[in-house]
Amino acid sequence: MTTLTNPKPEFTSTCTLSDCKPRSKTVRKIREFCIISGLVACGLFSLATTLTIIIVLAKETYSFFRLDEVSLADFFLGLKWAPLLGAEHHFGIWPLISGTLQVTFIGMCVAIPLGLITAIWLSEYAPEKIRRVLKPMLEVLAGIPTVVFGFFALTVLTPSLQFLYEGFEVFNVMSAGIAVGIMCLPIVTSLTEDALRAVPKSLREGAYGLGSTRFETSTKVVTPAALSGIIAAFLLAIARAIGEVMIVALAAGSSPPQLSDNVLNAVDVTSETQTMTAYMVQIFLGDVSNYGPEYLSAYAVGGTLFVMTLALTIIGHFIRIKFRQAYE
Amino acid sequence: MQSLANPALHRNGRFAKDKLFVILCIAATMLSITMLIILLTSIGLQGKDFLSWKFLSSAPSRKPAKAGIYPAMMGTIFACGVCALSAIPIGVGTAILLEEFKPRNKHLRLIHSIIQLNITNLAGVPSIVYGILGLTAFAHMFGVLGTVDQPILTIGTTEDWYHLRLPFGRSVLAGGLTLMLVILPIIIISSQEALRAVPGSLRHGALALGCTKWQTVWSTSLPAAIPGIMTGTILAMSRAIGEAAPLLIIAALYLRFTPGHLMDDFSAMPLQIFNWASRPQADFHYVAASGIIVLLAILLTFNAIAITIRQLTHRPMS
Fold first, then answer.
1. Given A119, A137, B235, B309, which residue has the most CB atoms within 10 angstroms?
2. Do B83 and B160 fall within a single domain?
3. Nearest CB to B97; choose among A42, A50, A214
4. B215 and B288: one domain?
5. Distances (CA, A) of A315 to A194, A231, B117
C-alpha cells in the first residue's frame, strides 16, 4: 500500500550514488591502513615485551658480574650460596638450582603418573557422562590460585607428613613438592588428553580389529601416536613447576641446600630448601639496598630462570612441530 | 611359552591386565578428586569461623578477630580493572593480526611466525619475571623519567581522583599493567583459537560481497568468535585475580587503606592471604583461610560464567 502511494523509495535509490561519493577508495584505503597499523602495533607489543625482558635481565646481570665480589666461574660452578649472612658472601647458583630441581622432581613424580593415567582413562575408557563431570572439576583445580596451594601445603600437608614421620621440619621440600605436583596435575591431564583425542579413530579401530584389548590399544597404539604432544605437555608442566613462586615461598623455607657442606644435601627432602624464585621474592620483599650485590644477584638468578624456562618452552614447541604426525 | 601354548590362558592374562589397568585408572582419578575435596574442605573448616560481613568490610588488623579484607579486595578490583581495559584490546588485536591477516610476502611471513613463536614463549615465562619487568618498565620507567619523589610529570595532587604522574611508582596502574603482561599471552592464544573455529565460508561470503579485509573481520569473523573470546578472557581474568607473584614485587603486602586514585599504593587479595599465611600464629592462618574462601568464591563465579557462555553457544557455525 505505502509503496503505491509513496514514490519516495525510488528517490532514495538514486540518492545512493551521491552517498557513495565520500566513501571513495582512498578513504577506505586510509582507514584500512590505519586499522592494520594498529593491529601490527599490537603484534609488535608482544615482541617488545620479550625484548625488554631480555634487555632488563641482561643489563642488571651484567652489572652484577662487573662487581668485584662475584665472578662468572663462582656463579656457575659454585656450590655455596650465602649472599646475605656471614663475613664472606658466596654466590654459587647450584644450591638454588638444586632446590628448584628438588621441588620440581617431587612435583613431577606426583603430576606425571597421575596426570597421564587420568588422561588415558578420560580419553579412552571413561563414559561420556563421567567425562562431562570430571572435565569441569579439572578446570576448577586449574583455576585455583597458587597461593591457595601454598597455604594447603603449609597447614595440611606438612602436619600430615610430620604425623607420618617426625623428621620433617616445619618448612620442607616434600610438602612444597607435593603441592606443586597437585598444581601441575590439571595442566598435564588436560594437555595429554587433548593429544590423545587428536589421534584418529582409525588407528584404534585397526588395533581392535587385530584383537587388541583396550589396554593394549591405549598403551601400544594411541599413546605412542600422541607421544610428541604428551612430551610437550610434560615440558610445559616442568616449566610451570620451575617458575612456581607462592607455594615455595610459603612452604619450602628460606635456605638452599649447601652443596659445599655435603653434596647429599641435595636429596634431603625432610629439611627446608630455597628455590630460585623464592630467593627472588626474599630479595624484592626484604630491605636490601638497591644496587648492592644482593639486589643485583636477584636479577642474575632471574636471568638463569628465564633461560631455563625459555629452553623448555622452545624444545617443547619444536618437539610438537617436528614429531607431529599428520594422519589422513 | 606356556601362555603361547595355551590360548585360553594367554587371553585370560591379557584381559586381566586390562581389568587391572581400569582399576588403576579409577584409583588415580579418585586420588585426584580426593585431593581436591580435601583441599576445599580443609580450607572451609579452617576459614568458617572468621568469615562474616565484618570480615568483608573492614581493614586488616593486628588482632585476628578484627582483621578484614576490604582494602585488598578494592586493590584487586582496581588493578584487575586496569588489567582488563589494557589487555583485552591488545590481546584481541594481536589475535586478529595473527589469524586474519596472514601475509603472503616471504619476509612478512617470517615476522608473522616469529610473533607466533614469541607468544608461545611468553606464555611460558614465569610470572615473577613479569614482576621484575613491571617494576623496571612501569614503576621506575627504566630510571629515565626521574624518580617517584621527583616525577617528570604530575597531573593533579594526591587528593584528586585523576592524579597521574610519570614514572608510575609502585601504584595500582603499574600493578594492573604488570598483570596485563601476564595474561596477554593467554588472551591471545584463546582468541586465536576462537577465530580459527570460525568457518572460512563466512569470510568468503563477506569478501564476495565486496567487503574489505577489515570489514570482513569486523562484521563476520569477530562477531562469530565473540563467545569463544569472552570465555578465554574471563578465564584469563580469573588468572589475573589469583596471581600473586608479579604483584609481590610491586604491591604492598599489608595495607589499611583503599586506593583513591591510580597512583595510590595498593594491596591485592592473594598478597593479603600470603601475608596472613606466612605469620606464625595459628589464628592468622584461619583468617587466611577465610580470605581464600572469599577469593575462591569470586573465581568460581568467574569460571561458572565462562562455562555457561561456552555451553550456551556451543553449536556449529557452518
1. A119
2. yes
3. A42
4. yes
5. 19, 10, 12
User: What's the domain count of chain B?
Assistant: 2
Element housing B155 (H / E): strand B153-155
pLDDT tens digits, one per residue of B37-46: 999 999 999 9
Smallest CA–CA separation between A221 and chain B, in Å?
15
Q: What does the alpha-carbon distance between residue B6 and residue B2 come to, in Å, rounded to a whole number?
A: 6
Which residue of chain B has the CA closest to A33? B214
* B81 contact A CB<8A: no
- Cα separation values, B80 from A304, B86, B266, Å: 30, 10, 12
End-to-end CA, chain B:
56
Look at B121 and A121 and tell me if their CB atoms are within 8 Å: no
Q: Are A177 and A108 in contact (CB under 8 A)?
A: no
Of the residues B30, B47, B64, which one is the last residue of a structural domain?
B47
Closest Cβ–Cβ partner in B39, B121, B126 for A152? B39
Which B positions 280-309 lie with beta carbon below 8 A of chain A? 285, 288-289, 292, 295-296, 299-300, 302-303, 307
Comparing C-alpha atoms, which of A306, A303, A287, A305 is closest to residue A295?
A: A287
The DSSP H or E segment spanning A302 is helix A293-322
CA distance A43 to A295: 33
Confidence of residue A317 (pLDDT cuts 50, 70, 90): confident
Distance from CA of A35 to the nearest CA of B (A): 8
Q: State the CB neighbour count (10 A cutoff) for residue B257.
A: 14
Residues forming beta bridges with residue A82, ordered by sequence position: A90
Whether B179 and B298 map to the same domain: the answer is yes
Q: What pLDDT, in 10s, does the model give residues B259-315? A: 888 888 888 999 999 999 988 888 899 999 999 999 999 998 988 888 888 778 766
Among all residues of chain A, which has the CA nearest to that of B302?
A143
Domains of chain A, start order: 75-322 (1.10.3720.10)
